[in-house]
Fold this sequence. Notes:
Elements: E1 9-17, H1 21-32, E2 37-40, E3 55-60, E4 65-66, E5 84-85, H2 108-122, E6 146-153, H3 160-170, E7 174-177, E8 182-187, E9 194-200, E10 206-216, H4 222-228, E11 252-265, E12 274-276, E13 279-287, H5 289-295, E14 301-306, H6 309-318, H7 348-355, E15 360-369, E16 379-386, E17 392-398, H8 402-422, E18 425-428, H9 431-434, E19 441-443, E20 474-476, H10 491-506
Parallel strand pairs: 1-2, 1-10, 2-7, 3-17, 4-19, 10-20
Antiparallel strand pairs: 5-6, 6-13, 8-9, 9-10, 11-15, 11-18, 12-13, 14-15, 16-17
Amino acid sequence: MFDPAGDTTLRTNVCVIGSGFCGAIIAVELATAGIDVLLLEAGSEAPDHRLDAMLDRVDVSGGTELHFGFARQLGGASNLWAGRLAALDPIDFEQRAWVPHSGWPLSMQDLEPWYRRAGEILGLQDSGLLAAPGHTRPRFLSAGAIEFKLFQWANRHFNAADYLREAARRMDRLRVMMNAPVVRLCERGDAGSVETAEVALPNGKIVRVHARRFVVAAGGIQTPRLLLNSTAVRPAGIGGDAVGRYLSTHPKANMATVILMKRVSTRHPLFSDQPSNGGTARCGVGFTAAAQREHRLLNHYVQVLPFAEYRANKLFDAWRGSHAFNSPLIDRSPLISGFIPGAGKIAFEMMGRLGGMQRRARKFILRAFLDQYPNPNNRVTLSGRRDAFGMPLADVTWTFSPEDRASVIAFFELLEREMRADDVARMDYGRLRTAQAWPLIGIHSHFMGTTRMGDDPRTSVTDRDCRIHGCDNVFVAGPSLFPAYGYANPVYTIAALSLRLAEHLKTRLP
């Protein structure tokens, strides 16, 4: 790891800020191409999950639980990653008339080659795009509007810290500096480009990094915080009015119950995790692009989780008193009354394993992974309070709006209609309509949209090449680029975007 010793001025070709998935992949790609790279990481190799180092006020409505996935350390959020991978659907990239502010400046086709490369790096046995294969459709669900979507777990764990260490050992072009939080970017007087990044060292000194290109890969909360605090030339910071807006995550909850007319094998990949090409795969249920267009739906997704009565009660005893495993949306469902005291008491991460203990079953929970309308009022702003380095903390405002809730109810209405048409199941989701507060896990580690890509600087922060509008040499990497969200874990897509950005930078640097 790089030690600046007594230097207060450093020079490099490319300065990468952040060492998570994006920063690590971009830095290694550029250094491999012979480009001099300095990567700056605010933390050390020791885990640091303290939110008060970054956040001040968090305003979230609707009874949502806050679970921030934050790792201020070498490797960033890759230290928290469970290995789950899924590509976005093609419709997620499209501009949809019923979804205001939707549409990427890229298409699925633009990202296909980068998805393949990302799969190789992240540990997918099959480096092609993830898609739900036709043979996974169970016989009891034949409705044409329903689509089976695949999540896959990597067959090896990708850790960005290890990736950087190994690359830095063999490449002099790559320098990795820890305990180096960047507090502001300083633009030239014409505000057309950034000249230096200011790094606040633990000893109180400021190091100024001069670079030809800067890549901010600090995450969906920290990236807008840095841009908003970069006020050397522009009082409102770098990036325009859209910086920090359109914040979304992937809210999720146990939301409905289902009883099938016939028992089915729980060894099907729709009901339990299955070995696949050296890793693990799991299917879930959503709607085809055609059905989403016809019914004006968002791209929600549900996993079908079997009950395991005995084990579930044992698990509930272990977690007794913890409201995190209760779900008022389904605890009172007449379909499970008397069967088990609250399906939400089962941790969903354990369900895939527990479900396998029931070889055949009829009763299931629907665990929903929810899309969301892009909302400019969901945002990150600066607080009046400052951290130990004098940088303003972040305030977060987020809500799952009435329109978001209506889209979820419409999703379940159509799903019930399709099941009823085939006479395969009964479904209960009635409390979605009556519950005032939905017990969502609303903010996790997928902080998306706060520096969104787009062609219009009034409603976006970066262009299709991830460059900040009006700033020639500053680029952004990470899920904050997403203009629309879908249901898929963002790691696969941010790795693909990072590889694409690295290639773009390589063509413009000697």
